[in-house]
Every structure is written in structure tokens, then in C-alpha cells.
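Justification of resources, computational component.

The compute hours requested in this renewal are based largely on the per-chain cost of generating structure records like the one below. Each record pairs the submitted sequence with a full C-alpha cell output. That output is archived, and it is also reused by downstream analysis tasks.
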Amino acid sequence: MDSKAKAPTVVITNGESTAVPGLHRELGLFDLTLMLVIAVVNINTIPIIATNGWRAITLWGCTFILFLVPLALAVSVFGKLYPQEGGIYLWTKEMFGDFHAFISGWCYWTNNLTYFPSVLFILIGVLVYVAGPEHVAKAADKKFMAIGSLSALWFITLLHIRGLGFGKWLNNIGAIGTWVGLFMLMVIGILVYRHLGSAATPLNPQSFLVTFSDYPSFSAFSVALYSVVGLELGSVMGDEIKNSSKIMGRAVFLAGAICISLYLIGTSSLLIAVPAGQIRPIQGLMQAVTAVPSQVNIAPIIPVLSIFFSLAVMGVCSAWIAGAARVPFVMGVDVYLPAVLGKTHPKWKTPYVALLVQGVISSIFIYISMLGQSVNDAYAFLLKSSVVIQLIPFLYLFIGLFRLKRNRIAAILGTIGTVFGIVFVFIPSPDTTDKVLFEEQIIGSTVIMLGIALVFYGLAKRKSR
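The structure output for this chain reads:
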């Protein structure tokens, strides 16, 4: 551990440590568990994994073993050792020092600036089903998607500026939407199987095997890893959780078990209802409903299911908009980013400047992603460019867990899974229209993001001297 690493000032209030004074503790065990579930279970990635057929179940299994379980153990350990605001940024600072903490925090935050738009595309793509089948084609209209995404982004951002006590209800409602929506999808899958006698995607023992000849599926492993990131999100808001050091471990393992179940149920139901080759990324889950054979009359519930899935996606975006903003907020308090980011609203006690800046930058990415690309290509770029940057902080997390000499097997498995996830993201998916452009965009966005981080860190160090 770097002896020179400095933690934020700690204040003890009613027996609880507080690294950043002025924040309100709003989240209990129930709120935190639902927040973690909605942060992890991103239904928008289920169709991407499901395009690999029943191999998707194998990919999920590898993801749970090589990442989700080690992550739960790591968060439980670090959450008890360092329960203050900052989460993975603070943990990296304690284990490796200021520079690595800055890189970790920067990556954890900036990947979300491209992730938010990708989730918002899913939200608008699902919402069009509420208006009826004649409006479904609007999901391919770049102008319509951009306006809808921007509107949703700023609604959620302003809600969280008003206060976490308000924003947490959107998280909770999103979790309920996820459960109800995936349960309805499971029922639809069962009805299809009962009427047709077989799954839409052929099922046999060989269909679960993943071999080197299936290397395009490896890129789906990166997305699967990305899909289960989020158990650490609650720790980023440590000073806004009641009895953080006591309930963090329980919330993490409870949420992890729920997430595993929901991903397996969602993927299996989708493959039973729709052939894998016909699944599309943006509207895959709703497509599973509209593609159900006429023998199973479920047309009346399509708008209802669309509403539940919309709530689920909105909850995902809400949880990450709130959690991700706390990282630049703490980094602003530490003055490694402009100090204005560390300001709280005088009335609502929220990191409003960090939330506003995050909203502005995400809005710019929504505009850029629509330049010269189809909606599907824009979505693929936003998603994949987020993966590399997102996984870098978890390398620090698992190596730090190994250095603590706790759960070393979990630390090794987590490190292996994270490295594979970063490498495999550079494998284009089969439906990528321009593979050279894809590689250039991923490499370019990664280099630019890390380069900007080095500039900010250098400026902060010069200012401190």
C-alpha cells in the first residue's frame, strides 16, 4: 500500500464515517439491493448475448465464475475496509496511490459518458412499442432517437439533482420493471414451447459448446462481463448509505444472486421465443414478443410489456447517472479534477455540478454517435467503446484484493476474466458493417480518453506544487 496515499477527510457522525460532509444518508438495505440489481441487470445487453444461441448460457456461466462472484467478494471486503464516498476510486487510492486512483476513477466515470447514450437508445427503441406497431420503425430514425434520448437523459439528471431521496424511487421502480418484464417474457416462452413443442432456437447438448471456431462469440463475453458490472456502484455512494459497512456485504450477495437468476431467465426465454439469427440488439426483447407465432395471441400485452421494459431501462440509466457522478464529485473534492465538481447543492445537498457536467458531455456523445452511422452501428460503437475503459478499474480492484491477501483465488479469477474481457472487445461482432472503422473507433476512443486523463492529472499535480 502506498504510504503517501491520502484518503479524504473522515468525519464521525453518530458512529458512521463520512468522507465528504454535507451529503444525506438516503439508502437502506432494501434501496441499496434494488439499486444494485437495476445497475447490474441491463436488459439491453441480453439480446446481444442471445444472438450466440444457447452458447449464451455458457458465456453467462463463465462470466459469473470469472467476474461476478469475484466482484461480489472484492466489494464485500473493500466496502467494509473503506466505507466512505468514492468506492473503487477510494479503494485504488488506498492500495496504489494517487496516480492509479485518478486513472481508475477517470475510467470508471468517463466510460459512462458513452454508456448512457447506448442505454437511452434502448429506452426509446422499446418505448415506441407503446405507441403501436406503426411507430416501431421510428427506432431507425436517427433524429427521433437523438431527441428522445436527450429528453430522457435530462429528465433523469434533473431528478437526481433534486435529491437522491427522489431519484432512488426511479431505481426501485426500474428494478420492479425488470422483474415483472422478464417474468412476462418467461411466461411467453413457456406458452410458445407448449404450443409449438420446441424452442425457436434449436436446443441440444452441442449447442452449449463454445470452441475456437466460434471466436466471434468471444466478443460477446466482453459484453457479458460489462453487463455484470455494478455491484460496486453502491460503494461509490458510501456516505449516502445508512450503516454502509454493515449492510454492504448483504446487499451485494443478495443482489448478485438475483442478477444471475434474471440474466439466465431472460436469455433462455428470448431464445425459446425467437430464433437466435433473428434477434436484433436494440429491440431484441420486444422483438421476442412481436415474433411470437399467431397461435399464441399475446398482442394485447405488448404495450404493457413495453412499459415494464421501459421502466427497467430507465432504472438502469438512473442508477448509473446517480452513481457515476459521485466519482468526479469526489475527485473534485480531492482537486484532481476542477474543484467546482466537488460542490453540493446548497438546498438539496446533491453533487449538482458533477451531474450537470456529466449530462452535457453525454449529450455531446449522443450527437457525435449519430454522425454518418446507422442507429445500430452507433449503438455498437457506444457500447463497445465503453467496455475497455470500464474494465480498467477492475484490474486495480482484483490486483488490490490479491495484495490484501484475502480471497486470492477470487482475485486471480477476476483478473483473468477482466483481461480476457478487454482483449475480446476488439473482436468485431458478425453483424458489424465496417470492421476496420470499428477497430479504429475503439482504439481511438480508448487512447483519447486515457490521454485526456493524463493531461488532467498533470495539471492537477502542477497546481498542487
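The domain at 11-464 is CATH 1.20.1740.10 (Amino acid/polyamine transporter I). The chain has one domain: 11-464.
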